[in-house]
């Protein structure tokens, strides 16, 4: 068992109204912290009132970006339980990110236990309007006060939580996505498959260009040949071409999404053909031209299943499935949210009820 | 003129002894801060006692790595003046990094004025033993408390300063460098030419591998073909082959080093042939094999001119100039340090005496 000290707030915040939630603005009353010191290891797991972090201005996180993070959610089920979805996978992935960023591994069991206790303490912060959830952000930052470029000797591992509105305010609206051909998010041998700040900082520019043109997100191509499809800003991407669902294989430069993995398993379970392989933007353009590009959708914790209604590549605007949600996308959306909100029986063993 | 408020410390720190300085451990008594708020712009430039920064745990710098930085030095000249070297170029480059990272541009004049005043306030912190200097670290961090992935609406621009020992404790010792062939630092279209945290986080792994094998730093190859030479961890690289000095051209993925630019100008001024162009690791290996690889050296603010005594690529250990400093490296070192410590007349107009 783990000894996690808990200090409860004496000053609980007022909870925001469901309609003003949005994403990532509000934070619950408590947070989980675990510290690392070279020679001591990870120590002092504790739940404390949500509060500012005070760091020396030379703390490495401010200079050399040594950081990793995760994103998952807690849901209120139809039976009024609190539910976590595949949270163990998030801490596994966090440790793989740690490995790439030269951050010492955390104890995944301890992290999961800390998370469960934190969600229990702030149980009332999980909103329960349809589509809402408590977004959970575990993250690790390098805190050693030192300007040398080397792995930090000190870290904070922190979990904060943010009640979040539905991604889809008025039903599922297919999004418009711009294929970026100039800027690159990641390359083989880089940090693309790790969930680390630098990947997101690097992606802001493409995002800015997409927004300016009226597109919701960027679809990234590979960094070597600017040709193969990688992923979208915060989701993995799937194409249904001629009855077969295709998603880029995990090649070292894209994030191994947990929703991606789950949806591949669901597709296989349902007997729908699914392939993880290299897929070029040219193949997608060609499929669109010959009428076999049937559906495109993204998968991610925040975006759930997000149908894509338009893809723009160079001067080519490709409308997909008349801008409407496709059959497979709808099925996956219903299955995923059914599992997450507890209205479908979890035969996969993915959910953790608290 | 700029109105920069100054609050002096009432509790000055003891200065470290010259022999314990090292790099980036100690910090002077004051720091410069400038804040950015969306709708207001950059505001409130001030010099305050060196102190911790307190941020919400959701501050964007902790999650999405939106940050840029610079590195330069103040020197004490032979006439006991404080001297800055091409500081205007650092703020120019900071703004180019800002552009890539979607951070609002700073007023370069204000930044330079803030720096001058800060160095003047902490004048006694510039060490004056041979080879020592006051390392200066301007940096910008995204501070908006929000988990949405978008450019922050709030930033801190901060300058801190660290008295630093000589890079070369016992005369100039050529370093051993490992050519990395698996991991990649940056790729065209990415953030390689910006000075942003993510590039350094990404490079830690290669650095770790190099250290383990007894090498001081990593030489990075390009991300597309793993073939062309880019730069070293914290310096640009030069090769003298058959009488000609060659350095990789600025191609979008390497940092446009200010020392690099200065040394190219010095070489041209002295009539020594110098080329900025693509150069592959194969060309270097071949030059080594046929005996025309005469010198290799790195250039950087911290490393000054750093001769390379050995390059290892795959299983090939190339010893360069018998592991000794070459003629050109020595000349550049003498010229650069002569300008920086004021023993050589500055005909380039690069130095700012305070
Ligand atoms: C770059 C990127 N790709 C994909 C995903 C989807 O991953 P997951 O399904 O684990 O949320 C995310 C979001 O977390 C992401 O940030
Ligand atoms: C990656 C990298 N390349 C090159 C340099 C050298 O640049 P400069 O000469 O401006 O210090 C540095 C150090 O600042 C660096 O971090």
UniProtKB/TrEMBL annotation, chains A, B:
Transmembrane segments: none
Range of residues in the leader sequence: none
Alphabetical keyword list: Amino-acid biosynthesis, Aminotransferase, Branched-chain amino acid biosynthesis, Pyridoxal phosphate, Transferase
Catalysed reaction, written as an equation: L-valine + 2-oxoglutarate = 3-methyl-2-oxobutanoate + L-glutamate; L-leucine + 2-oxoglutarate = 4-methyl-2-oxopentanoate + L-glutamate; L-isoleucine + 2-oxoglutarate = (S)-3-methyl-2-oxopentanoate + L-glutamate
One of the Pfam families matching this protein, by short name: Aminotran_4
Listed name of the protein: Branched-chain-amino-acid aminotransferase
Source domain of life: Bacteria
InterPro entries found in the cross-reference section: Aminotrans_IV, Aminotrans_IV_CS, Aminotransferase-like, B_amino_transII, BCAT-like_C, BCAT-like_N, BCAT_family
Cofactor names: pyridoxal 5'-phosphate
EC id: 2.6.1.42
Enzyme class, broadest EC rank: transferase
GO biological process per UniProt: isoleucine biosynthetic process; L-leucine biosynthetic process; L-valine biosynthetic process
